[in-house]
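For consistency, the fold was encoded as tokens, which produced the following:
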Amino acid sequence: MAGPDPRELERLLRLRRRLKSRKPEFLRTLWWKFPKFKNDPKWRKPKGIDNPMRLKRKGYPPLAEVGYGSPAAVRGLHPTGLEPVRVSSPAELESLDPSRHLVVIASSVGLRKRMEILAKAREKGFKVANP
């Protein structure tokens, strides 16, 4: 299955950038009130019977729901339009395409192997997100 043509992809990436600029940051209920939530405020759906956030009361943060998403064709893509792929060894570059994939070197890779991956990626024409 082929993706959208390059002009359509560029349009969808611009649209996603515009939508993301308007999208609020979704944080869990009462993250500002309790220290244990301040350390880890990531989204949790409010489920309490009287939870004002679940009831969408005035003055409470918005819920993550349908309508805030980005276009399906560009979801998960890097802003350059390339698909990020985590690479742990130089051999993994063989099955990738430089025109479609963006190389992200795994954090567990040491310096020696990182240098090998970088050299092979540059030789094959890949863009590397974290050189």
The mean pLDDT is 93. The longest helix spans residues 6-22. Helices lie at 6-22, 35-38, 111-124. The two ends are 31 Å apart (CA to CA).
